[in-house]
Design brief:
The complex is a heterodimer of chains A (about 150) and B (about 160).
Chain A: H1 4-15, H2 19-23, H3 26-30, E1 34-36, E2 43-46, E3 53-55, E4 60-61, H4 63-80, E5 89-97, E6 106-115, E7 119-127, E8 136-143
Antiparallel strand pairs in A: 1-2, 2-6, 3-4, 5-8, 6-7, 7-8
Chain B: H1 20-28, H2 31-36, E1 39-44, E2 47-52, E3 59-61, E4 66-67, H3 69-88, E5 94-103, E6 113-122, E7 126-134, E8 143-151
Antiparallel strand pairs in B: 1-2, 2-6, 3-4, 5-8, 6-7, 7-8
The chains are: A alpha+beta (about 150), B alpha+beta (about 160).
Amino acid sequence: MTTTIVDAVKAARESGDYQSVLDSIPYMKFLGLVVEPDTAGPICRMPGSDHIIGNPVLPAIHGGVVGALLESTAIMHIMWSHESLHVPKIINLTVEYLRSARVVDTYAQAIITKQGRRIANMRVEAWQADRAKPVAAAHAHFLLPRAED
Amino acid sequence: MADGDQIVRPEWARFPAVSIAGMNELEETIPQIRALGIQVVSMAGSEAVSRLPYHPQLVGDPETGVVHGGVITTQIDNLCAVALHSRIGHYVPCVTIDLRVEYLKPSAPGLDVFARAVCRKVTSQVAFISATAWNEDENDPIALASCTYMLLPERESTVSGGRN
């Protein structure tokens, strides 16, 4: 079991397809996340579905789920960027909620704003129909494993 | 009440009054909260406590079995709204504008996650809530959080069914 995700990350580095990495992480799979390759790093797409709703009257996606999408996208970016063969540990996450997230496809992409030896500083944005109108943005710190391989 | 300044503003009173039974009914209407199995176990004054049962589908690291941070983010975001509603006594529509979570240590695999939120301050438009999460010992937390909500009393009620 301990080699599953490491093997998946190694295979993804060969193939460029990170979906199998994501699918080995139960909660990301539970959210239905889909990895869409991009030269700037993986874009994670979260399809609209009933079980991610936080406000059934509007309706809108749960704010915590938007936070989970942002965190997941940062994790996938770190593994894509060859910084870790393992799921990096999150230290903290600050989410700004900018617009109500409708129950449609939501996308997120991350950048590493500063890369240290032990810590990665990340910025992540999530958007829906219009990338120029993000629904949420986050900054977060992750702990990187000491030695990768 | 932490600072003794609770005021039920006239614009809040038109919304249904809060009760613990009603709160868990409301939680049941929220698909993501139902999917995670989160339950409010206590609610009084400015404070609320919820429990998130461990489930393998919530794991964020298959090598360790540790729950995904996003699950705790959701538990805390939800519970902060519960504490806010408890404090003001009515289901006033509100939205999260900012949430910061510090993950002090991983949640222990196989154990439930408990969280306590305390609403520290409410103004006519904004509420400030802090929260902690733990597995077995509240004095040994796994996460600390602070959350800011915006109140939207001009909106129609977002409470659906079974609230009165």
